[in-house]
């Protein structure tokens, strides 16, 4: 019986050929290598990688990303999926306003060796050969087998596109992780805002397990940004009255967050804020913080109506109930997971519905990975 993974590889190989019907065998091998191994072999120095991306984008000029961008646009955008955890990001993102340094950082962060890359590549190559043997891809079976054998004997080194592919499609892209590519619209908007203003404050809103903390860590890695967490502003025991908890968004101390963080942040003053200690249900001593060019506030209730006017940009991470439940059960013991479903998620949903938080955000990103 054919596995779902094998079906996916067949579908991706055929779709890739349909997108680039002038491709040759080596171009398909390059697709397979990138799908299984990503881009780790191309990154030796971060600074050089960023400079090269900027130079390539500038030299490509009005034809940036060439015909591959046009083909990609027909299929929904400037990002092209590969058969695995990576994707191709066309340099037309830079023409749209994404900073070369931002794409460079994402490229470098994606360059960790893929787990079992060579073994996964072997499986994909076998599927490719079988499709050719069955006539489902229009390459010569003997020629395909010979080229694969030579490639295997050499240890599956990275390969370049054929000259015919480069002349026909003018490819200009970088390979990054799909989980990063999902947030490219946000990175693009951050870079646009940073070009317009010296300082940008970003709110990341969304429900439990939507990826807010993960995204904030990625932003920190890309921009060296300051990150603040709404979880540091839980209510103290004496504040947890039935009346307070009945308020949409009332289960966080938004008043203290406004006073200690957002008000001085908007004035670009030094921040001294006190973090809530979940182990003692008390507030810790003040923590001094100097704002950076990009400051990120992550957490549910960050877009409370009393807070939203203090941000320059906001994004809502929209996670499906099914994926949310799967993530919560995976990262928590059963008793804690049930508390999410019984207490915290209903409160979040009440807040989202009552305040229309999703539609008040500048961007909405559908979380799918």
How would you sum up the major sheet?
Answer: 5 strands, parallel
Q: Would you give the CATH topology of the largest domain?
A: Rossmann fold
What is the domain tally? 2
Provide the helix percentage: 40-55%
The tally of beta strands, per DSSP, is 12
Spatially, the strands of the biggest sheet line up as 5-10-4-11-12
Q: What's the CATH superfamily of the largest domain, by name?
A: P-loop containing nucleotide triphosphate hydrolases
User: Structural class given helices, strands, pairing?
Assistant: alpha/beta
Roughly what fraction of the amino acids lie in strands? Answer: 5-15%
Note the total helix count. Answer: 17
Describe the fold and architecture.
There is one protein chain. By secondary structure, this protein is α/β, with parallel strands linked by helices. The protein folds into two domains: 4-180, no CATH class; 184-367, Rossmann fold (3-Layer(aba) Sandwich). The protein is 51% helix and 14% strand. It is built from 17 helices and twelve strands. It has helices at 4-19, 25-37, 46-60, 66-74, 92-96, 100-109, 117-133, 141-153, 163-169, 178-181, 184-196, 212-223, 242-246, 254-266, 321-331, 334-355, 357-360; strands at 79-81, 86-90, 173-177, 200-206, 226-229, 271-273, 276-277, 282-283, 287-289, 294-298, 313-319, 363-367. The strands form four sheets. Strands 5-10-4-11-12 form a five-stranded parallel sheet. Strands 1-2-3 form a three-stranded antiparallel sheet. It has a two-stranded antiparallel sheet with strand order 6-9. β7 (276-277) and β8 (282-283) form a beta hairpin. It is elongated and about 75 Å long. The chain starts with a helix and ends with a strand.
């Amino acid at each position: 019986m054919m596995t779902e993974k094998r079906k996916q590889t067949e579908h991706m190989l055929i779709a890739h050929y349909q997108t680039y019907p002038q491709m040759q065998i080596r171009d398909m091998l390059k697709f397979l290598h990138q799908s299984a191994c990503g881009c780790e072999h191309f990154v030796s120095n971060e600074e050089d990688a960023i400079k090269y991306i900027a130079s390539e984008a500038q030299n490509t000029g009005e034809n940036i990303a060439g015909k591959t961008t046009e083909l990609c646009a027909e299929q929904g955008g400037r990002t092209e999926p590969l058969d695995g955890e990576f994707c191709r990001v066309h340099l037309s993102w830079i023409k749209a306003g994404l900073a070369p340094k931002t794409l460079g950082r994402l490229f470098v962060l994606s360059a960790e060796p893929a787990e079992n890359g060579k073994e996964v590549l072997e499986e994909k190559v076998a599927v490719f050969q079988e499709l050719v043997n069955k006539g489902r891809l229009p390459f010569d079976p003997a020629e395909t087998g010979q080229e694969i054998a030579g490639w295997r004997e050499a240890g599956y080194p990275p390969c370049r596109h054929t000259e015919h592919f480069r002349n026909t499609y003018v490819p200009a892209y970088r390979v990054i992780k799909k989980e990063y590519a999902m947030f490219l619209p946000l990175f693009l908007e951050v870079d646009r805002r940073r070009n317009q203003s010296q300082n940008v404050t970003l709110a990341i809103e969304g429900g439990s397990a939507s990826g807010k903390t993960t995204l904030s860590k990625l932003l920190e890695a890309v921009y060296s940004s300051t990150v603040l967490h709404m979880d540091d502003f839980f209510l103290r025991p004496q504040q947890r009255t039935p009346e307070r908890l009945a308020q949409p968004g009332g289960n966080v101390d938004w008043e203290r967050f406004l006073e200690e963080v957002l008000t001085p942040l908007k004035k670009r003053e030094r921040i001294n804020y006190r973090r809530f200690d979940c182990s003692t249900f008390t507030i810790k001593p003040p923590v001094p913080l100097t704002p950076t060019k990009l400051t990120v506030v992550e957490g549910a209730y960050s877009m409370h109506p009393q807070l939203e006017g203090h941000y320059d940009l906001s994004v809502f991470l929209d996670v499906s109930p099914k994926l949310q439940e799967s993530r919560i059960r995976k990262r928590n013991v059963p008793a804690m997971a049930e508390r999410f479903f019984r207490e915290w998620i209903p409160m979040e949903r009440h807040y989202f519905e009552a305040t229309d938080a999703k539609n008040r955000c500048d961007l909405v990103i559908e979380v799918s990975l």
